[in-house]
Amino acid sequence: MIYCIFRTTKKDSGFTIVEVLIALTIFSIAIAGVITAAVQGGLDVNKAKNRVVAGYLADEGLELVRGLRDTMVVQNAGFGAAHDWAGFLTAIDLCTHASGGTQQSCDIDAENTAGSTPFPLPANIIGCVPLGSACPLYYDTHGYYTHVSVGAASTSFSRGIHVTEIAGSGTSTDEVHVVSTVSWYEGITQQSVSVSEDLFNWYAPPATP
Length: 209
Hints:
By secondary structure, the protein is an alpha+beta fold. The chain has one domain (32-200). The chain has helices at 17-74, 76-79, 85-91; strands at residues 98-99, 102-103, 106-108, 125-127, 135-139, 145-146, 153-166, 175-186, 189-200. Strands 6-5-7-8-9 form a five-stranded antiparallel β-sheet, covered by helices on one side. A two-stranded antiparallel sheet has the order 1-2. β7 and β8 form a beta hairpin. The longest helix is centred in the N-terminal third of the chain and has 58 residues, at 17-74. The radius of gyration is 32 Å and the shape is elongated. The termini are far apart.
């Protein structure tokens, strides 16, 4: 009699430790890529936001100087001789004065903290300290970027306005070159946006009969 003996082998199920390690490595690389892309995307959005805000603040600096010029020239009749083009040049001396070759910076507060009427007037001009630096900006509860730190949140933005008088015929100065620069930091790198414009003495007082 012949006996046939069959041996069956049971195949082990599951993964070996090597397979698990390989799978974890591939998964970690994929997740790291996703996280890196998300973090970089967030940083790019924040950089773009800062650049947009800085651009608006730089434009606002020009608008405030223009508003100061217009207020003083148009309101000359109501405020006397000190509030005309010559008075405007005197007021912006904080933005033009040079000491030791360093140009002075100034700014004009967008919120009428000086209480001047109309607005803006020389009382709203702020000299930046130290000489040649920009004035730090704070974000207050009214939605203004201002120079009053009390009750306001610190920001990474600073603004400095430089004004250069352009000599005309004789000793008169009927034109100024205005540069408004906003700077901020992204990490340890300083960024800046500048806009400029020439302003003129466009108002001619009526001739005396």
